[in-house]
Amino acid sequence: MPKIIDHDQRRREIIAVAKKLIIQGGFEAATMRSIVAEAGFANGALKRYFPSKDSIVAATFQSVLAEMGQRIAEGDPTSDPVQALRHHLESTLPLDTYRIESGRVLLALWEHSVANEELAALYRRHLRDWRALLAERIAAARGRDEPADAPEVIQLAGEAINMSIGANITSLMFPDGSLIPEFRAYVDRLMRRIAD
After folding, report:
1. N or C: which end of the chain has fewer CB within 10 A?
2. What does the record give as the DNA-binding region (predicted)?
C-alpha cells in the first residue's frame, strides 16, 4: 500500500526549516540546497512544494506574520479595551526567545523584500492592516469616542509600530533577552500617553 503524504505538513516542515536556517545564519543560509539537506528530502522533492527560493521566502514571511497575528488574536478584544491594547502591543515585541527569533527572521525577510516587489507589497499590506487594527484598539482604549482615523490616534499607532520594529531590531544585538524589561517599560510609557 502506498504511503500517504500530507503535503500541507510537508510545506509547514519546509517553512520551519527555512526559518531555522535564517535564525542560525541569516537569509543567505537558507539556500534551496541547505533547505533540502536540513529537511532530509531528495533534491527534486523541494520543487514540488516550492518552485523557487522566493516562493519559500514568501511562505516563511507569511508564516511569521500569521504567528504574530495569532498571538495578537489570543487576547480577547471584547474584554477591557485598555488590556486588549496592552496585549496587542506586547504581542509584537520580542519579549521571549521565540519572539526574538521570529523578529530575526522578519528582519532578514524585510531586507530581502527591498529587492522583491512581491514581498514588499505583502509587507506594506501587513503594515497598513497592522496600523488600522492598532488605531481601532487605541481609539477604544482612549474612550473618547474618537474615530480610528483621528490624527492623534493614527500618530500613536505609528509610534507603536515604530517602537515594535525598533525593539525587534535592537533585540538582534541582545538575543539573550536582557532588554525585555526595557521593552516592557516602552509599553508602560506608551499606555500612559494613550490614556492622557
Report:
1. N
2. 31-50
- Count of structural domains within the chain: 1
The CATH number covering residue 107 comes to: 1.10.357.10
Question: Residue 166 corresponds to which cell in the numbers above?
Answer: 525598533
Say if CB 95 and CB 140 are below 8 A apart: no
CB 94 within 8 A of CB 100: yes
Whole-angstrom Cα distance, residue 100 to residue 161?
Answer: 16
Q: Which residue range forms the structural domain that includes residue 88?
A: 61-195
* pLDDT category of residue 55 using cuts at 50, 70 and 90: confident
Residue 43 in domain: no
- Whole-model pTM? 0.81
CB neighbours of 159 closer than 8 A, spacing ≥ 6? 190
How many percent of the chain have pLDDT more than 70? 95
Residue 34 in any domain: the answer is no
Task: Report H helices in the chain.
Answer: 7-25, 32-39, 45-49, 53-73, 81-91, 97-113, 117-142, 151-171, 180-195
Give CA separation, 86 vs 27, 58, 59, 120, 127, in Å: 32, 29, 29, 28, 19
Q: Which distant-in-sequence residues (6+ apart) come within 8 Å of 25 by Cβ?
A: none
Give CA–CA dist 95/155, Å, rounded.
24
